[in-house]
Design a protein that fits this description.
Distance between the termini: 28 Å
Number of helices: 3
Strand order of the largest sheet: 1-2-3-5-4
Largest sheet: 5 strands, antiparallel
Shape: globular
Radius of gyration: 17 Å
Length: about 130
């Protein structure tokens, strides 16, 4: 794969780590699923591969439904990594609300739009 991984870890959660990198000359984010030592190695490898593939398919299904998501550049089941569009400079919903949305009706409009998107996910059996 044509990706350089940065040294800096951006985030870590229960299922994986997020790194900043470069893919094909473009900035990217790398989500790396890591092994769980308490699981049998064969089961762990199977679950990680399955969950990574499900995540990539869910992103692609969202895109087909017109829901904005980061573009997936590539995925590698052998390393448990997904290479996707870098959105680390994007604002979180919380920050957007604090900085730009001061009117209650505007907040409710935005919340209604988010509800519509979540409804579309749920009605299409996409787990978020």
């Amino acid at each position: 794969l044509n990706c350089k991984m940065a040294e800096t870890l951006l985030k870590q959660g229960a299922e994986g780590r997020i790194y900043k990198g470069e893919y094909g000359g473009k900035p990217c984010v790398i989500k790396e699923r890591f092994s769980k030592r308490y699981r049998h190695p064969t089961l762990d490898a199977k679950l990680n591969k399955q969950r990574m593939n499900q995540e990539v398919r869910a992103i692609q299904r969202c895109q087909k439904l017109g829901i904005k998501t980061p573009e997936v550049y590539s995925s590698d089941a052998s390393t448990g990594k997904i290479y996707m569009e870098d959105l680390t400079r994007a604002k979180t919903l919380r920050d957007h609300l604090l900085e730009h949305v001061h009117d209650y009706s505007e907040q409710m409009g935005l919340m209604a739009k988010i509800g519509e998107i979540l409804g579309k996910l749920h009605s299409n059996n996409i787990i978020h």
